[in-house]
Structures are given as C-alpha cells and as structure tokens.
C-alpha cells in the first residue's frame, strides 16, 4: 500500500548527509560517503519499497515526472559527475593511476572538493524533500481533450514550433521563443512514438520530420547540451512502449555520446570563427572520429568529463572565495534576479543579466574577463554565495517544492500526464532540469508560468480542451 506520510522517508535521506559531515576531518572518505549518498537517495526515492510514488500510473509510464527525470538529471550532474574530477585530483585517469610511485597527499583542494560534495548531497536531499512534501498522489483534472484523436498535436507542434523558430530571430523574444520551440519539439516526439507504436504514417512522418530537423540543427550548433537533451526526450517518450530496448541501448548510447561528442563538438565550433561553414566543420568532425585519433579523443573526453560535465571545480573556486575573501552576497543576487523579470520595453536602463551574473564569476577568478567563456553559476552555487550552507538547504528545498507544484499544475489544467507533464512541463520548464544561475532561472520560471497559462487559454479557446465539472 502507498505510504502517504513522507516524514520517515525524508529523515532517511539525511543519514548520508549526517555521516559525511561527521567525517569532515577525513576529506577523501567524507567525499565518497557524500558521493554514494546521492546514489542512496536515488535508490530510496525511486526503487526501494519505501519510495513514495504516485499510483495513478505504472512507474514506467510516469518517468518524466520530477521525482524521476528532473531528480536524475539535476542531481546526476550536480552530484554524481564530480567523481571524474575527484579521481583526476587523486592522480587517476580513466581509473588508471598515472602518478606512479608518488604517494598522494591531502591538500587544501581535497578539503574544498569534499566540502562541495557534502553541500551537493545536502542540496540533493533538500530538493527531494521539497518534492515529496508537496507531491499530490491524485490530481483533480480541470480539463479533458475534446477529441479522441491526437491530430491536434500535429497542429500544435507545427504552429508552436513555427512561432518559436520565427521569434528566435529576435534576441529580445528568447524568453518566449525557446519554450515555445521546445513545446513543438516535444509534441513531435510524442507524435513520433505514437506513429511507430500504432503504425500511423501521418503521425510518424510529421513527428519524425520535425524532431530530426531539430536534431540536425542541434548537431550543427557546436553545443553538447541540445544533442543530449534530444536523446533524453526521445528515450523517455519511447520508454513506456519499448522498455527493454531503451534499457539495453541506454549504456552503449551514453558511452558513445560521452566518447565521441566532445571531440565532435570541438571540431564543429570551428565554424564559429566564420572561416568555415557549420556543414564543413561537421564533415571535418566526422573525419576526426576515427581510431587514428584515439589519443586526441581520449584527451578531449577526459577534459570534458573533469571540467565540463562536472562543475565541481568551479564550485570549489567560489567556496574558496566566499566568505574568505568576500562576504556572502545575502539578498544581492535575489534582487538582481527579480529586476531581470522586468521587460526591457518598460525599463530601457535595465542591466544586462548576462553581464550581472558573470561579474561574480570574474570576481572569484573562475574565468577571465577577456575570455569568451560563459561560466555561469548553478542554483546550488548561487544559494551558497547568498547565505552559505543554510542557503543551499533553503533554496534547494524551495526548488523541489516549486518544480513539483509546476508539474502537478500542468497536469491539472492540461488534463493529464501526457499533455500536462510530458509536453508542457518538461518543455516550458526544461531549463529547470539542470538549473541555471538565479537571474536566468527566475526568468524561466516567471515567464514559463505566463506561457503555460497562455497555451492553456489558447487550447481552451480553439476547443481542444474542455472543462471538467465535478
């Protein structure tokens, strides 16, 4: 039977946190306790008999809800990927010791890494605590689809994807353009899987076309994240229908992405200088992905795994800087984030949020002001910079409550899991999967909420959704 009292489960999540802080004087052991603590939280909240999971759908049909997808992505990046950087710090590379004969000695960086890992674990526990406390086991739906057919997804996908693509040409409309484009892509992914599952060539053709076009565009961007996100989305929508196939493909696909993607993207970025086109850079990238370049690929990948996939090195630099060399920011970051919500049309002198957020990166020495690197902070870092360890717990607790509420609200007003959670929540609020600095995250939440209600009103107006009366 479903246990509706989360108190006991929540208290259990903090055991590894407590143990890791008790071992603070043994930083290596403390780090590994904190690292395994996140795996413990994953197991306890997803796979264990004590896990509190909604009972309206089988588990495999609700994997895009926050307790599964968002937790795995957010905490996976925040907590689990740090193992590569830490092993590199200990003198290992791809699990092979490279400092032969040299005895490793703990130093200041070891202590900083362990401290950041403990805070990351605390953030993970707080995130899940917030989710569990506000999660509704049953949601009273306020809407239902007017038609049995899913044809409306075709028009929704084409129209929303088209509007999003057009508005992307105007930088000032990115707040609207990006969420709308992602809604269109998610509709296409759902149509794609419905077409495959039901052999409906109309759904298959339209869904596959939009999704593949977007994937090709992502492959020419020079960024890794859009490619990875596309793979995650398509895997998640196919999973309920092809569980074993997706599970069998997950590890080799992840390995292939991590092995080839860093080198591929580094080559594609040649097009940024304008000397070659994106297509030419892509051709060169495929040529570089062969066995003759194995050493270069492994070098690029290890750099990616230790300093790009994991951002714990950046976290340690901030912890070293604040509060030793600068006091905590208190409400300063929050205030600038709230200012960022005001449209520039109403405030011509509004500061550039990219510049504002990057200033603390420059101040801490994480990046040089003359470099082209955009090393923006993540939610846990901004929470720490604001109020220290209490700030990490408080803000991540609120984060968990917020994402769960937004997911439940989307299901409530859009009439269920597929349209509400899969398409709307995980598209409009996709930026919350991994999080961003407070300035950009507050913006995503506020304007995402506006867009969600706008799309709800639109679907009600064109009679795709009808109200449900008790």
From TrEMBL:
Keyword terms of this UniProt record: Membrane, Transmembrane, Transmembrane helix
Transmembrane segment boundaries: 9-29, 35-55, 67-87, 152-170, 176-196, 203-220, 247-264, 383-402, 414-433, 445-462
Domain of life of the native organism: Bacteria
UniProt entry tagged with the keyword Amino-acid biosynthesis: no
This protein's record includes keyword Ubl conjugation: no
Entry protein name: Oligosaccharide repeat unit polymerase
Signal peptide, first to last residue: none
């Amino acid at each position: 039977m479903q246990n509706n009292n989360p108190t006991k489960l929540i208290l259990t999540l903090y055991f590894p946190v407590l143990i890791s802080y008790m071992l603070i004087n043994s930083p290596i052991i403390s780090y590994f306790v904190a690292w395994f603590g996140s795996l413990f939280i994953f197991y306890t909240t997803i796979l264990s008999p004590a896990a509190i999971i909604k009972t309206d759908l089988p588990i495999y049909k609700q994997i895009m809800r926050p307790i599964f997808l968002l937790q795995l992505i957010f905490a996976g990046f925040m907590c689990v990927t740090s193992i590569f950087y830490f092993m590199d710090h200990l003198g290992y590379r791809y699990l092979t010791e490279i400092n032969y004969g040299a005895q490793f000695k703990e130093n200041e960086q070891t202590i900083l890494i362990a401290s950041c890992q403990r805070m990351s674990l605390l953030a993970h526990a707080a995130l899940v605590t917030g989710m569990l406390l506000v999660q509704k086991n049953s949601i009273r739906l306020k809407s239902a689809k007017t038609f049995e057919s899913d044809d409306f997804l075709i028009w929704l996908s084409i129209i929303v994807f088209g509007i999003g693509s057009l508005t992307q040409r105007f930088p000032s409309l990115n707040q609207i353009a990006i969420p709308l484009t992602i809604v269109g892509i998610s509709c296409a992914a759902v149509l794609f899987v419905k077409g495959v599952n039901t052999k409906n060539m109309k759904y298959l053709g339209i869904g596959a076309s939009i999704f593949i076009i977007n994937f090709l565009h992502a492959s020419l961007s020079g960024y890794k994240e859009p490619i990875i996100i596309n793979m995650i989305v398509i895997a998640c929508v196919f999973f309920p229908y092809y569980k074993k196939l997706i599970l069998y493909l997950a590890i080799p696909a992840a390995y292939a992405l991590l092995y080839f993607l860093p080198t591929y993207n580094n080559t594609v970025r040649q097009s940024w200088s304008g000397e070659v086109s994106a297509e030419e850079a892509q051709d060169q990238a495929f040529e570089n992905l062969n066995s003759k370049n194995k050493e270069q690929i492994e070098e690029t990948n290890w750099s990616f795994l230790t300093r790009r996939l994991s951002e714990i090195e950046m976290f340690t630099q901030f912890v070293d800087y604040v509060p030793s060399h600068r006091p905590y920011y208190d409400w300063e970051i929050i205030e600038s984030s709230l200012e960022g919500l005001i449209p520039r049309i109403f405030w011509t002198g509004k500061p550039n949020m990219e510049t504002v957020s990057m200033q603390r990166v420059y101040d801490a020495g994480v990046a040089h002001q003359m470099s082209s690197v955009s090393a923006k902070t993540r939610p846990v870092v901004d929470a720490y910079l604001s109020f220290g360890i209490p700030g990490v717990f408080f803000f991540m607790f609120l984060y968990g409550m917020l994402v769960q509420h937004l997911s439940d609200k989307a299901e409530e007003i859009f009439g269920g899991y597929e349209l509400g959670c899969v398409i709307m929540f995980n598209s409009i609020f996709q930026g919350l999967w991994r999080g961003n600095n407070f300035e950009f995250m507050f913006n995503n939440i506020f304007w995402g909420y506006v867009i969600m209600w706008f799309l709800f009103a639109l679907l009600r107006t064109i009679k795709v959704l009808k109200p449900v009366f008790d």
